[in-house]
Give the backbone structure.
Amino acid sequence: MITHDEARAILESMTKGDSLLRHARTVELVMRAYADKLGENIEQWGITGLLHDADYESYPDQHPNVIVNQLRERGETEIAHAISAHYTKWGVPYNTLLDKALLACDEITGFVVACAQVRPTKLQGLEAKSVIKKLGQKSFAASVDREEVKLGAEMFGVDLKEHISFIIEVLQQHQQELQLQPQQAQA
């Protein structure tokens, strides 16, 4: 199986922007936590989250085909399939829990981060109900596809509010690394 170091090298070879690198890491963390919770392969799920948008910055017109083909060449067919299916409008079937988990975690994790970024306390004190309220504001984080958020939770079989609470909790455990900790009081 592809190692985390190999996956990170692939990601960094195609992705330079801090925002997209952080998105990859946040989805990785959430996917790892779900794998642990559900008794799935933590490394496989984490690498799937880490690499799902690896080619987006360098090859936006070919996304996700570049990373999918690289993974298939390495024999990582399950990871490749999940990445090829992480947007419902691509018409790829959802065969495994891994496929459904990535769909469920991608857009909403990015949205949770967007919600945290506009708060002085960042992730601290952020609640699912606030995130859900922001989902109703179409102008906020307008690039997030609300239908994908809804479909992802449904396909993964999770209650959206509980799903968001889980994501917040996972990200809070890594808030310093993700630069989503509260701003320090000025002296």
Summary: The radius of gyration is 16 Å. Residues 18-38 form the longest helix (21 residues).
